[in-house]
Design goal:
alpha+beta; 15 strands; globular
Amino acid sequence: MTWRPHTVLRLASPLQFRPSSIRAFTQVLASRSKPLLRPIALLGLAIAAALTISLPRSVPPAAAQDLTAALWTRASFPVENFQTYTSPFGYRSDPYSGNSRFHYGLDLAAPNGSYIRNWWAGEVLWVEGAGACGTSVAIKSGEWTHIYCHMHGHVEGSGPNKTMVDRTGGIQLRAGQVVPAGARIGRVGMTGRTTGPHLHWGLKYQDNWVDPALVLRAMYVGQQAAL
């Protein structure tokens, strides 16, 4: 797949964990360790199967551990100007109805208009402009699907010609585009069902929902090991 002429993306290197993000990240993990970090086995799956990369059987265990940690240096933290996590993955009190509902993602608060970065290199699966998710994009990376909601902009066209457009942010995305890790793919907004500016970030592995906090933890551990 090659870049298409209409592509307008502001490319940047993958956004790793800066000191402010590390502090906020570790504080949130400490305060929410029970609801966010339940399936330790799933964390191991996330590390070992990041893009369904299999390691040669001849690789020694220590070297294999280094390789799986190194995989996460290719990943990008998904939002610039990160402030805090506002809603974890799992059951929560719905901000509109007050009823208990399952939240299929992690909410990352950032100032309105902050750029959103592509977590991992992949191909745009779909773009949408309506519903609770608002202006949104899904990207496929091997067995992983990552979903970004509540962005600035709108969707133009229909069918295979649907295009997510944020002219002010210099963003234009269409299904089938290949997007590198760290590319700016949108901006934090308030489209769809939301009470404030944030990125709702959803992750699926083999069509099963995954707690994004597990992946962020693996990224942090892997990137620190690679320093």
